From TrEMBL:
Stored Pfam families: CtpB_N-like, PDZ_6, Peptidase_S41
Protein name: Carboxyl-terminal processing protease
UniProt cross-references to InterPro entries, sorted A to Z: ClpP/crotonase-like_dom_sf (IPR029045), CtpA/B_N (IPR055210), PDZ (IPR001478), PDZ_6 (IPR041489), PDZ_sf (IPR036034), Peptidase_S41A (IPR004447), Tail-specific_protease (IPR005151)
Segment forming the signal sequence: none
Family recorded in the similarity comment: Belongs to the peptidase S41A family.
Gene Ontology molecular functions: peptidase activity
NCBIfam families: prc
Length: 488
């Protein structure tokens, strides 16, 4: 918190010092913001900049001050707005394009170490012999113990053709293994699938990226090629943090009638008031044709369950909300994260940008899920014993300065009964539990979804969700314009 205020206090001081009296600067600001510039406050900021330059114990570069100032100003707005420096902007673009430079492993944490969930096929890690279940204990000479998973992942990423040496503990080996891997560009498919048993298939979207719609079309076609008589399909969106909006529209369009509204947005700018429909112009792909046009007709009518949890956010909530509103699928799992805002990338230079919250989004029936999330039709815990680590995750309503839900003022009510006691119980329980492999043989929620599709009993959760008494309106308060702006 203190660093946020420190950053905010340095807003654009060096830049302002030179132009605060400029009529051109004032006119430009009025044109862009529609309001006069707060000159007195800007003079104060310029004075602070001058004090730092003259009195601070060490010399501070102007660029550093300005970068931190911009970062603090944007970050003070809400949890999802951010200034993207060269590195962050590059990582964002890589993430949305489904590629990054690294080793090529899916990882989790176990006992303070990085656990290899699965090496990506044909990746450097796969070729070097890393196996599922391996524990990475050191990255080069640095112990992993004490790092967060994000910190460890950042260390494993880097520039192409650079080396990293992993110290690996493997169950069947008496001594640690030293494995040196050369980083390369990794291309990741965001969609996984398999036929669970004759007649029933599982389709997982891990993140919504630019290639997601094409990947989904390929996986669905492969499922029906393997088993043309699919009776039930599970769409798995658990722990899907979201991604690009066109990906969410395309995934929804695969299962909904053509041309129906999938999601609408509403914000200050005219182009933020929009409705997005289930047709190609709104989920535009890189392929020449429409990848969804070649899907079997049965995809539109197959019985469906959508699995969600508190890690399902943003684009995954758009899909779950649309399929729920049209009663196209039964939503199963636990209440989703509740990120109902749209972030637009405004590029500042060739390699920097601002990610700015520009709108809220609404399901086809006009529901805002901001700070509330999607409430499943069937509440099912992560395991037979309870909701495990999923019950400990933060949701949007827990984040400082989160946007409110403009449709439902009771959306932020959380169940605080015996919260501390429940967290302690879950923490103790999850120390004994292995990381869950979605789609694996021990996937309890997937098993319940298959039971539901077969008409068999489902073990529902005992915990109750605090729901609002206020009914959502049917339509967005402002009539959104029909346009195809892409927001990321």
């Amino acid at each position: 918190m203190s660093s946020k205020f420190k950053n905010f206090g340095l807003i654009s001081l060096g830049m302002i010092a030179g132009v605060v009296g400029s009529m051109q600067f004032d006119a430009m600001a009025q044109k862009n913001a529609g309001a006069p510039l707060p000159v007195d406050e800007l003079r104060q900021l310029a004075d602070v900049f001058g004090l730092i330059k003259s009195d601070y114990v060490e010399n501070v570069e102007d660029k550093k001050l300005l970068t931190e100032a911009i970062s603090g100003m944007v970050a003070s707005l809400d949890p999802h707005s951010a200034y993207l420096d060269k590195k962050a902007f590059k990582e964002l673009r890589e993430g949305t394009q489904g590629k990054f430079v690294g080793l090529g492993i899916e990882v989790g944490m176990e006992d303070g170490y990085v656990k290899v969930i699965s090496p990506i096929e044909d990746s450097p890690a796969y070729k070097a012999g890393l196996k599922a279940g391996d524990l990475i204990t050191r990255l080069d000479s640095t112990p992993v113990k004490g790092m967060t998973l994000d910190e460890a992942v950042k260390r494993m990423r880097g520039e192409p053709q650079t080396k990293i040496t992993l110290t690996v503990a493997r169950k069947e080996e008496d001594k640690p293994l030293l494995i040196t891997i050369v980083r390369q560009e990794i291309r990741v498919q965001s969609v996984k699938s398999k036929v669970i048993e004759p007649g029933y298939a599982w389709l997982r979207v891990a993140q919504f990226q630019e290639p997601t719609v094409e990947d989904l079309a390929r996986k669905l076609s492969a499922i029906y090629a393997q088993d043309p008589n699919i009776k039930g399909l599970v769409l798995d969106l658990r722990n899907d943090p979201g991604g690009v909006l066109p990906g969410a529209i395309g995934v929804s369009a695969a299962f909904l009638p053509k041309d129906v509204a999938v999601v609408s947005t509403n914000g200050q700018l005219p182009d933020s008031k929009a409705t997005f429909y289930a047709r190609r112009e709104f989920y535009g792909t890189r392929s020449l044709g429409d990848p969804l046009s070649k899907l079997p007709d049965a995809v539109k009518n197959v019985k469906m369950v959508v699995l969600v949890n508190s890690g399902s956010a943003s684009a995954s909530e758009i899909v779950a909300g649309a399929l729920q509103d049209y009663k196209r699928a039964t939503i199963m799992g636990t209440q989703t994260f509740g990120k109902g805002s749209v972030q637009t990338i405004r590029q500042l230079s060739a390699d920097t940008a601002v990610k700015l919250t520009t709108a809220r989004y609404y399901t086809p029936n006009g529901r805002s899920i901001q700070a509330k999330g999607i409430v499943p039709d069937l509440m099912v815990d992560e395991t037979a014993e309870g909701d495990g680590l999923n019950g400990l995750r933060l949701r949007e309503a827990d984040l400082t300065k989160h946007l409110t839900n403009d449709k439902d003022k009771e959306a932020e009510v959380r169940n605080k009964v015996d919260e501390l006691e429940e967290e302690q119980r879950l923490a103790a329980l999850d120390k004994k539990r292995k990381p869950l492999e979605f789609g694996g043989k021990d996937d309890f929620q997937l098993a319940q979804a298959i039971n539901y599709l077969k008409g068999l009993p489902v073990q529902v959760a005992k915990a109750k969700v605090v729901e609002s008494k206020k009914e959502p309106s049917i339509n967005d308060p402002e009539d959104p314009k029909k346009n195809g702006d892409t927001k990321k």
